[in-house]
UniProtKB/TrEMBL annotation, chain A:
Membrane topology: Multi-pass membrane protein
Organism of this sequence: Nonomuraea terrae
Record lineage: Bacteria, Bacillati, Actinomycetota, Actinomycetes, Streptosporangiales
Protein name, entry field: ABC transporter permease
Superkingdom to which the source organism belongs: Bacteria
Example GO BP: lipoprotein localization to outer membrane
Residue spans crossing the bilayer: 20-43, 251-272, 309-328, 340-360, 410-431, 625-650, 671-701, 721-740
Automatic annotation (TrEMBL), chain B:
Pfam families: ABC_tran
A GO molecular-function descriptor: ATP hydrolysis activity
Cross-referenced InterPro entries: AAA+_ATPase, ABC_transporter-like_ATP-bd, ABC_transporter-like_CS, ABC_transpr_LolD-like, MacB-like_ATP-bd, P-loop_NTPase
UniProt entry keywords in alphabetical sequence: ATP-binding, Nucleotide-binding, Transport
Coiled coil: none
SMART domains the record matches: AAA
One GO location term (cellular component): membrane protein complex
Domain ABC transporter residues, every copy: 5-241
Source species taxonomy: Bacteria, Bacillati, Actinomycetota, Actinomycetes, Streptosporangiales
SUPFAM superfamilies on file: P-loop containing nucleoside triphosphate hydrolases (SSF52540)
Record carries keyword Repeat: no
The protein, known as: ABC transporter ATP-binding protein
Length: 755, 242
């Protein structure tokens, strides 16, 4: 009790004396904790809306698309609890404000089914009294800007236009969100679908299977594949739906987690540095406390409480901030308590461990107050000798000597700056990777910037119009089909584009481009999914026709988690390849896609459907915000380290200053001495950090690319200019920060009395 | 009545590298309650070492230390710390005030540590600072005080836990004559109130304030003499005798 009172006085007084650095510590820790919580929340399933949607809609685990109504009883497969459908579904195009979006119109009864029933979020469900009503899946409705009562104009495959009216907007776990998952989903009554698409052959049938055990979806879908044989179009399971809903969050989460974990190390280092430096500066006070009757353990505990409390305060602040940001962005229930508690506990442990060592050292201070607190001196470091040798000014020599007299703090200072600098460099690398997506879209598979669908026109006419345009450099006919892989529970995308002889320039980063019929390139995701390597032969089934190709290379593949096989149109069976469903248009350098699109629409009297390619960088632009925020936090950490270093340097010199002045150094030279001392470490640390960051960044981004299926080969290091500017700015800012206390110290009248 | 402090054949040998440095070599010293002992001797004779050992700041190599009739040289470091809270006050040559704490807090700290309630600690601090003429500096930082003022504060702090034994290591070593006089007057005053004091000094005139002067040379007591006091002698007069 008595020690608590006395101790708390001391802690309070000490904190009051160093408000600035203390606040910095709190902020840095808070930033890191907030980043970690954000990361975990984004990575955790809790943010994935799939779970909630699936539960709400009592979703189906497996979705099966067949040409005709399935002739076999899918409900009879072992493990299937209930079935939804089969529902008839027809592909249509939604024309809305000059946009054209692909949609699947699904016929559903007026009484929603028990399984996989869409949950109406706005408006009402389909009503036989209003046959022109349509219920639109929510993400699709949002993307189209649809509200209840809005007209919903669709163009059927035969070109006929129909105007329906939005009666309801519903949540569904039947498929992923639009536009990541296409086509968009809309529900109509069967009578309406018959009117829109009377031809049975142009539609397909959709059956959902709800299983007793979600883990059985692989087995069940394989059963279905075998039973349905040629009738089967494609299959997907709840896993694909879930994966598609979490797509961007995962990448962001990984980035944040990387920065958070390394940042935590940096913050712990900064904390240990700050506590250690403070303890070194307080040895006399600690001795005095002991002479008054504080025990070794109590002194250590005091220090632990003081410095630990700052860290814990930072953790609390960060937890609240992180939770607040996530709750604001994703809703209050998105943050799972478990991981957040784990982060709080984990960072608290790290913080206590970081300040534990300096605290323990402080506790071991001998109680005799005369204990000298002077830096070890004597030998000139090798570097200082070198400085003398090349006849540097005396201030620089002295500063150089100072920089390395205390080896451990010198190392900690340099290292403490190197780690944040390394992370900043990595952040800049991510930034420049996004920039390179933008400036070289062909390197991420976006050689073509416009995609033309024939729409009302004949495919040949569409091709002619496209080829005539002066800004179109090349036209690649293409078609996307779904293929079933043997033993896989789902379909993969096969993209046939251009001919095998004049292939579309996919960005092949491993192996080679396909050069003849029967060869293909694949994304990393597909290689991983099928467990094949470059050079292997794969056998897929496209609408009942076998497709056997040799994979000769790996391409960077930002679509579909990399689970895409790309090949020439001629490698596909005639029935699937002709006619092409779209044309990919590569433009002349410098041509404006929007302008070309306008011209093409004009030429075709709005008959063509022209879409601009969506650059993956656009989808990831939020990452730039995150990078800026993280750089700010890392800069704080670096600053905290710097303040510690310069405070320590000053303390070591407080009593030398008078002597230096007496030796004939001007205040300016004294200042230069002090700044050189810290500046040298700053330059070393920042330089090392930048070099380390630049040398790992490409590999790191490629690693992330690999795991996300896009594949290695996208990583870019920051440009030398950016890096140089960053280093110069960091060093400059650091020197400016070191200059302020040095200036004050150099000017101050220093008493020559003993310490 | 027990001696406040007693040493029996006390030895301290610093093991500085390969060469052992004997700082104190078999000191037998007994300090009676209410006594004011001055320890004198040339530099390096082991005065500080002796006083530090008496307060448990340093461990003895061999011999015995007794405080208030209890043997203490065998105590652990933390037991010593607990003992210091209750029984010992230290004044050092360089004041050793906690730099970040105000004058008032510096004085209250040992009182709190010895178990006094905040209210009692505050009252004690007020009376001590008033006695030392420092009431108006209570909220100042130590750095804002002159050396003499700082040493007066240090003295107040040493007395705040009402120690049985006040140990002072050259309390005037860093002060000019005017401040020396002030500090010595205070020491004389508390001594008159019955405080037992052991004070290290170089200065014979300062030592003459004590009841008894112990002279150390090379770590051994070479002289232990009681001063026959002039009845009217005060610290001020001692200094004025030049
Ligand atoms: N920590 C230590 N390590 C090694 N030797 C020490 C240590 N402290 C003191 N000594 C040595 O012990 C001897 C006695 O030192 P001490 O400080 O007690 O002398 P002193 O009488 O107080 O001197 P002064 O009047 O200069 O303060 C000296 O020879 C000194 O060098
Ligand atoms: Mg001494």
């Amino acid at each position: 009790m008595s020690t608590t009172r006395a101790g708390s006085r001391w802690v309070r007084a000490d904190l009051r004396a160093r408000k600035g650095p203390a606040a910095l510590t709190v902020l840095a820790v808070a930033g890191i904790v907030a980043a970690l919580i954000t990361a975990v929340t984004l990575l955790e399933d809790g943010t994935n809306p799939w779970r909630g949607l699936f539960a709400q809609t009592e979703g189906a685990h497996v979705w099966i698309y067949t040409k005709d109504g399935p002739q076999v009883s899918l409900g009879g497969i072992d493990g299937v609890a209930e079935t939804a459908g089969p529902y008839r579904s027809a592909p249509v195009t939604v024309a809305q404000d000059g946009r054209r979006d692909p949609a699947a119109l699904r016929a559903m009864p007026a009484t929603p089914p028990a399984v996989a029933h869409p949950v109406v979020a706005e408006g009402r469900w389909l009503d036989p009294a209003q046959p022109d009503g349509v219920v639109v899946e929510r993400s699709f409705a949002r993307s189209l800007g649809l509200r209840i009562g809005a007209p919903f104009t669709i163009i059927a495959l035969n070109g006929g236009r129909h105007t329906l009216y939005v009666r309801g907007i519903a949540d569904s776990a039947d498929q992923g969100f639009y536009p990541e998952w296409t086509p968009g989903l809309a529900y109509v009554l069967p009578v309406m679908l018959d009117r829109v698409e009377p031809v049975q052959a142009r539609s397909e049938w959709v059956t959902g299977l709800r299983l007793d055990d979600p883990e059985a979806s692989q087995v069940v879908s394989q059963r279905a594949v075998v039973m349905l044989e040629d009738g089967l179009q494609r299959v997907y399971t709840w896993r694909e739906v879930r994966a598609s809903m979490e797509l961007d969050n995962r990448l962001l989460g990984t980035l944040l987690a990387l920065f958070g974990v390394v940042g935590l190390v940096a913050a712990a280092l900064a904390l240990a540095n700050a506590a250690g430096g403070r303890v070194l500066g307080q040895l006399r006070d600690l001795a005095t406390l002991k002479s008054m009757g504080f025990t070794k353990g109590q002194v250590a505990l005091l220090l632990l409480v003081e410095h630990g409390a700052l860290g814990l305060l930072g953790i609390a602040l960060g937890a609240v901030t992180g939770w607040g940001v996530m709750a604001a962005m994703l809703g209050p229930s998105s943050v799972a308590a478990g991981p957040v508690l784990a982060i709080v506990a984990g960072t608290a442990l790290v913080v206590l461990a970081a300040v534990g060592l300096p605290a323990w050292r402080g506790g071991r201070t001998p109680p005799i107050p005369a204990a000298p607190a002077a830096p070890p001196r004597g030998h000139l470091s090798r570097l200082a000798r070198l400085a003398l040798l090349v006849r540097l000014p005396p201030a620089l020599v002295l500063g150089t000597r100072d920089a390395f007299t205390r080896r451990v703090p010198a190392f900690l200072t340099a290292f403490g700056l190197a780690v944040p600098m390394m992370m900043i460099t990595i952040g800049l690398g991510v930034w420049s990777t996004l920039d390179s997506f933008k400036s070289h879209p062909e390197q991420v598979g976006q050689h073509a910037s416009l995609y033309v669908r024939p729409g009302k026109l004949e495919p040949a006419a569409a091709q002619r119009i496209a080829e005539r345009d002066k800004d179109v450099a090349a036209v690649y006919p293409g078609t996307d089909v779904n293929a079933l892989a043997p033993g896989e529970a789902r379909s993969v995308r096969v993209r046939a584009l251009g001919g095998s002889a004049q292939p579309y320039p996919f960005p092949v980063v491993e192996g080679r481009m396909y050069a003849r019929q029967g060869e293909a390139v694949a994304g990393q995701g597909l290689l991983d999914l099928l467990g094949v390597e470059i050079g292997d032969r794969v056998r897929l089934t496209v609408g009942g026709t076998p497709l056997i190709v040799r994979i000769v290379g790996r391409a960077v593949e930002p679509d579909q988690d990399g689970e895409v096989l790309s090949l020439g149109l001629d490698s596909l069976a005639e029935k699937d390849a002709e006619p092409p469903t779209y044309y990919a248009l590569a433009l002349q350098p410098g041509a404006d896609p929007a302008e070309v699109r306008g011209r093409l629409l004009g030429e075709s009297a709005e008959g063509l459907d022209v879409q601009a390619a969506v650059n993956p960088a656009d989808r990831l632009s939020v990452i730039r915000v995150v990078i800026v925020a993280l750089i700010a936090v890392l800069a704080l950490i670096g600053l905290a380290n710097l303040l510690t270093a310069s405070a320590l340097g000053l303390r070591d010199h407080a009593f030398d200053l008078a002597v230096l002045k007496a030796m004939g150094l001007t205040p300016r030279q004294v200042m230069a001495t002090l700044v050189t001392g810290t500046g040298l470490l700053v330059v070393l640390g920042i330089g090392a950090g930048a070099v380390a960051g630049a040398s790992v960044v490409t590999a790191l981004i490629d690693l992330q690319g690999h795991t996300s299926g896009v594949g290695a080969g996208i990583g870019r290091a920051p440009s030398p200019v950016t890096l140089a500017v960053t280093v110069v700015v960091a060093v400059g800012a650091a020197l400016a920060v070191a200059l302020i206390p040095a200036r004050r110290a150099a000017r101050a009248q220093v008493p020559v009395t003993a310490r | 009545m027990n001696a406040v402090a007693k040493t029996v054949n006390l030895v301290k040998i610093y093991q500085d590298g390969a060469v052992p440095v004997p700082a104190v070599r078999g000191v037998d010293l007994q300090v009676e309650p209410g006594e004011f002992v001055a320890v004198m001797g040339p530099s390096g004779s082991g005065k500080s070492t002796l006083v530090h050992m008496l307060g448990g700041l340093d461990t003895r190599t061999s011999g015995e230390i007794w405080l208030d009739g209890k043997r203490v040289d065998t105590l652990s470091e933390s037991a010593w710390a607990l003992l210091r809270r209750k029984k010992i006050g230290f004044v050092f040559q360089f004041f050793n005030l906690v730099a970040n704490m105000t004058v008032g807090d510096n004085v209250e700290l040992p009182a709190l540590l010895s178990g006094a309630s905040p209210k009692v600690a505050r009252r004690r601090r007020e009376s001590l600072l008033a006695a030392l003429n420092l009431t108006d500096r209570a909220d100042a930082a130590p750095a804002q005080l002159s050396g003499g003022e700082q040493q007066r504060v240090a003295l107040a702090r040493a007395l705040a836990n009402e120690p049985a034994l006040l140990l002072a290591d050259e309390p005037t070593g860093n002060l000019d004559s005017r401040n020396t006089r002030d500090v010595l007057r205070l020491l004389g005053d508390v001594h008159k109130d019955g405080q037992t004091i052991v004070m290290v000094t170089h200065d014979a005139r300062v030592a003459s304030l004590a009841d008894r002067v112990v002279s150390l040379f090379d770590g051994e007591i070479v002289d232990d003499g009681r001063i026959v006091r002039r009845r009217t002698g005060t610290a001020g007069e001692v200094i004025d005798l030049r």
